Here is the input.
Amino acid sequence: MKFLSEYRDPELVKEYVEELHRITTKPWTLMEICGGQTHSLVKNGILDMLPDKITMVHGPGCPVCVTSVSVIDEAVYLAEQPNVILCSFGDMLRVPGSKKSLLEAKAEGADIRILYSPLEAVELAKQNPGKEVVFFAVGFETTAPANALSVVQAAHQKVNNYSILASHVLVPPAMEAILSDKQNTIDAFLAAGHVCTIMGMEEYYPVAEKYQIPIVVTGFEPVDLLQGIVMAVRQLEKGEYKVENQYARSVQREGNRMAQETIHKVFEVSDRVWRGIGSIPQSGYEVNDAYRNYNARLKFTIDIPFAEENKDCISGDIMKGLKKPKQCPNFGTRCKPEHPLGAPMVSSEGACAAYYQYSSNTIEENIPF
Here is the structure.
């Protein structure tokens, strides 16, 4: 299959693995940003193929994982309001809030619908004029265009019973927060290809220059990731630090201008609290004043006390690259996908879920060569 089978080519995998063993002379720690990259690395056994001197740690690039407890509490509050239909992506339902998850709220009678697109929620609002329909708009820059477009369409069609609870987070500020941490050990980043497909690469050049760190944009297949690791290690071994694009089949330097225009039409940059990490300035999107009627926080005057994180969950240390999932004393015992202590064990992109499902697997077992 074009654009798939060639990125699972066992010969290319072997070539990149051999090169890594040949060129790696010093210990290096690389962080992949995206949870999709993490799952591919673990599922395909790539971590076991790397030289002992290369350590991969797993970043905060899972939007479900970084959605704060307080935002989950906001979503539960909205779902429990009379006449409200709360719409969400499915993997948000089991994420724990301070008191309950959306799944528990649904079991208690809240009208919560699992949808695949915010545009479906706009249609649902049109079909239910006597209800208030709220879409839980979670995600990185990747999902922001569709969520923004749903607001534009609702405004254009005068669908006044639609709003969104925005919980968007942005990658570059999170990278800077990690690099600024006194405990930081990251030598290079693998940036998320799907985010860069939307936003381009311009935001990464100042980060690479300021912190003198290689940043390589990669895709999600085994060859993508191994080639990206090779590109990063080549830079590290030469003492270079620049932004490179492994995912050139999808990513252009300027990104998708039309998608960016849609984002900026509806959203403004705001501070955001990240689960396990804390508040990161200018790291999120909030609905701007022009579309304030579609901002669920304003429409419902949400005022919920700040909720503390579960102290038994080390998600913050995992997403900052300070620990691996199996270093958590509750991993696989008190914390499992069916009974998670934190979001990384819930999400389909969570690092803990990846280790729980795939950590003993190898590339030969999982890729149909």
About this structure: Residues 222-238 form the longest helix (17 residues). The longest strand covers residues 278-287.
